[in-house]
Write a structure and sequence with these properties.
This is Peptide deformylase. Removes the formyl group from the N-terminal Met of newly synthesized proteins. Requires at least a dipeptide for an efficient rate of reaction. N-terminal L-methionine is a prerequisite for activity but the enzyme has broad specificity at other positions. With 190 residues, the chain is of the alpha+beta class. The chain has one domain: Peptide Deformylase (Alpha-Beta Complex). 21% of the residues lie in helices and 22% in strands. The protein has a 5-stranded antiparallel beta sheet with strand order 1-2-3-6-7. The longest helix has 18 residues. The structure holds ligand 4LI and nickel (II) ion (NI). Nickel (II) ion binds next to α3.
Length: 190
């Protein structure tokens, strides 16, 4: 059950390949299994039994597949459960405003605490293909937007700590203009 690839494995540093569309039965099965893994990791009994850490996002390279596939499972700002399975996801537009998790980011492939701010876009509009191979777009904000960007990074061989400022891990990136005001969107989440 816990077949998650850990940091140090070169697969996590490679660029994953586009999935040919429509997706094959094998691609679909693997993406469904990624959602199932997240469900299990969030279920206290199953997580205990299989010694799983809870996660809300998983990218295919983390289970040793060089494919552009992402699974997400978490609640949105209305406490509604959101499950997303995506082939070939990409950002088609994003906010200028940034956001970050105040508690830093964690990753199922990283068995240590890496403190610091991971700057992300506050809002993104994504394009992807669902399990049926149908194209869809979706706007994300808040925690969901951050999780999506973290997982998309995995498809490009980027780890969250690559984005933490080495000199000053808690440095908050601001637009390089003194007249730019910070808006509500920039308040830290969680
Ligand atoms: C228990 C049951 C404090 C520390 C606050 C926990 C079910 C960290 C935050 C969870 C942190 C669930 C999460 C992510 C952070 C921290 C991921 C708890 C699982 C909160 C998800 C991918 C970054 C995503 C906000 C090192 C495994 N997840 N917390 N970051 N939750 N979770 N990330 N940050 N500090 N990581 O982890 O799934 S994007 Cl659902
Ligand atoms: Ni990760």
């Amino acid at each position: 059950m816990d077949d998650v690839i850990r940091e140090g494995n070169s697969v996590l540093r490679e660029k994953a390949e586009e999935v040919a569309l429509p997706p094959s039965d094998e691609d679909k099965r693997q993406l469904e299994e990624m959602i199932e893994f997240l469900r299990n990791s969030q279920d206290p009994e199953t997580a205990q039994e299989y010694q799983l850490r809870p996660g809300v996002g998983l990218a295919a390279p983390q289970i040793n597949l060089k494919k552009r596939m992402i699974a997400m499972r978490t609640t949105d700002h209305n406490d509604e459960l959101i499950e997303l399975a995506m082939f070939n996801p990409k950002i088609i537009s994003h906010s200028q405003q940034s956001a970050y998790l105040e508690g830093g980011e964690g990753c199922l492939s990283v068995d240590r605490d890496v403190p610091g701010i991971v700057p992300r876009y506050a809002r993104v509009k994504l394009e992807a293909y669902d399990l049926d191979g149908r194209r869809f777009t979706k706007r994300l904000r808040g925690f969901l937007a951050i999780v999506f960007q973290h997982e998309l990074d995995h498809l490009n061989g980027i780890m969250f700590y690559d984005r933490i400022d080495e000199q000053d891990p808690y440095k908050i990136e601001l637009p390089p203009h003194e007249l730019v005001q910070r808006s509500e969107d920039e308040v830290p989440l969680a």
